[in-house]
Every structure is written in C-alpha cells, then in structure tokens.
Amino acid sequence: MITPMTSSEQVPFPASDATTPIARLREIVEKFVQERSWEPFHTPKNLVMALAVEAAELMEHFQWLTPEQGEAVARNPEQREAVADEMADVFCYLLALSSRLGIDLTTAVLRKMEKNVQKYPAEIYRGYFGPDDPRWPGPASSSASQ
Ligand SMILES: [Mg+2]
C-alpha cells in the first residue's frame, strides 16, 4: 500500500523507475503542493506554462552543443545532475497537471503508444524519421505531429 509522506519524511531512497509506481510520485508532488497551499496557483494553464518553462530550462543544457557534446553530458557528473534536476521539474509539473485534470498517465501513454504504432508502422518507418527524410522511400503523407 502506498502511504502519503508526512512533512518530516524524506524522499525515500533508494528508489528507481523499476520499483516506484507513478501513483507514489504523484502523491509526493501532491503533498508538496498541499503543504504550501499552492493549489490556487496550480491551474491547468499555469501548470502547462510552468512545464514549458522547465522544458526550456532542460533545453538550455543542450543548446549549442554538438551531437557528441550532447551525448557527453551523461558522462559529466555535474552536467548530468543539472539535467536530471530539469527532467524532474518537467515530470513533477506533468504529474501535477495529470492530477489536476484527472488524467491517468499510464492509460494516456498506453493509448498514445497504440496510436503511434498504428500511425508509424515499423515496416515503413524503420530507419527513417518520416516523409521529410531525404532518404524516405515510404508513401507520401501529410506531416503528422507526434
Ligand atoms: Mg528548473
């Protein structure tokens, strides 16, 4: 059973994606917001904007880097931690938005991936990013957002 953290509890370590339900992360974020009475600020519009800001902060760490320098970020402890912090910010706002809108993220991801499987058949898209790929051998189609 998942129990909410009290204000005196620390974030439980060690934990990992493999052992932590999304519901537990949602509870941690909800409790953080509740303890600060930030619910009035967490409107869907504000959460979406905050998420976009955090995504931009994440992008800043890769702006102007070569592809090789971008790959090297994961091997630099300081850069890796800074990127992880921004990824967490993005995910926390996504969790808060999903709570606010009552959208189950697991269901949303599974439904969207099923749509993606239908939209991007592997036998056609394997090795190509899509119709704009100069090497594209597949059928012409309208640009599709992912
Ligand atoms: Mg940030």
TrEMBL record:
It comes from Thermogutta terrifontis. The lineage of its organism: Bacteria, Pseudomonadati, Planctomycetota, Planctomycetia, Pirellulales. One of its GO terms (molecular function) is nucleoside triphosphate diphosphatase activity. InterPro entries: dCTP_Pyrophosphatase, DCTPP. This is Uncharacterized protein. One of its GO terms (biological process) is nucleoside triphosphate catabolic process. Coiled coil: none annotated. It comes from the Bacteria.
